User: What shape does this take?
Amino acid sequence: MQSNSKERFRKKATVWWLLLLVHGDALRATPLAYLTAIQWKLRCKRLRARGQLAPLLSQSPRAYRLWMLQQDEPRKVDWSEADATPPIVALIDISMGESRLADTINSLSAQGVTALLIGTAALPTLFEAAARIDWDQNPWLMPIASGDIVDPGGIRAYRNIVGKTDLTDRVPKIIYADDDLLDWRGRRHTPHFKPDWNSELFCHFDYITGACILRASSQDLEALAGVSDWAQQLVSRIAGQVSPIHLSQMVHHRCARPMPRVPTTTAQSHDLPSVTVIIPTRNRANLLRTCLEGVAATHYPNMEIIIVDNASDDPQTLAYLEALDPAKYRVLCHPGVFNYSAINNRAASEARGDLLCLLNNDIEIIDPNWLATMAVQAQREDVGAVGAQLLYPDGRVQHAGVVIGVGNAAGHAHRFVYPDEDGYFFRHALPQFTAAVTAACLVVQRERFFAVGGLNERNFPVAFNDVDLCLRLNQRGWQSFYEPRATLIHHESVSRGLDQDPIGAARFAGELAALQRLWGTNSIIDPFHHPELSRASERFVVSI
Assistant: This one.
């Protein structure tokens, strides 16, 4: 008992010492940003301070080690007495060599898992493996590479998930877990805290193969005999049958993992529906002119443009609006207090397009195919709102989808990452389903927009109206979609200001309260984020 107390004390002391070192690393790497965060913390601006500190601390080479020390030790299991059902059979791929094969086998056998080797002579080996498996026991298979290690307790965690799902209507065929990498000395690094199943993301990034268990048949194995990438082919085949389930636990320690495949071509279609582009504006004719010049240069066959003027009083802007060609642009006047939701709902009610494109007047268009690219995705049966990749004028990412729960509200994913950086496994560069997207540039089917009641004018006149819209569309089975192949520049909030006045601050506080009340964003975990990623940061960094 005394020994356990000493061990806990030593661990706690190590955690505190490592935490100091991580803070020291952040201070040395980015002193100004770090000291700014500390200043905010001292001024009781805790949320802002955490949002600034989280990505700074995560850059420390000690950050992941600190996270690991903060985790509970897995409970040891006596597998001679444990329930080993259903059986799990590991298929160890040794085609790339047998380095650390003994480590792999030991980590599996210690948890009651039988291992079969799949070698370079894949044709007979897969047939032999299929023949040696007792299919009557309805086993789970674990394709795994030589040298990879399954964390102690990982198999038990898988079996717990199997036991729970077997009691429901949703019986999975794949369960996948989180993974990290091993260096040549066996030290763990580069964790991948994965999203729940995201079929579109999986098309560009195989984040499942080598870190999962699955149910397959002998015919599935035999059909892949002779295929060099049989494990990936097997996972793709089974994933297309029933949506995989995510075990959000660090189970697999790997020597290597598949890399994302960033698409270089845009989604194409020769059958594009009509679209109405809605652009709210107030004064700032220079912004609107830049936006409309980009819209005019857009390659799209059937486009209606509605400009909604919210009480502009600048003579230059009024003259610019008056001079617009009425054959190309419809200008609607919307007087009164700025209410983004009401402005767009009014224009949408007069729109003739099959698709609606909500577009801020401070958007600068740099790619003539942006709208066609988004329209292709918006026509899909499973898609609701489609959002683009938006960049700040300095080239950094401003929007790459929206994460629910960040800051106990909602945040723009991967903000401030440069497009050519790795970021978080290139997620900012990959088409994928998201919880929401920003209405600064959003495309949605007009019929679906009105099916969920449009934008919420009462609760969200300015902020979070796009998040609320996306979440209501999601509820109907029309999931939000992030399309980075449509890239534009966003001069964020230039035309309206930043709501630093007391009235604006009070309004924002009311909208935030409504978001938390209606959608539970102060506690919800975004299915495309992760419980172990910081809720304080938009940068997808480990929570420490």
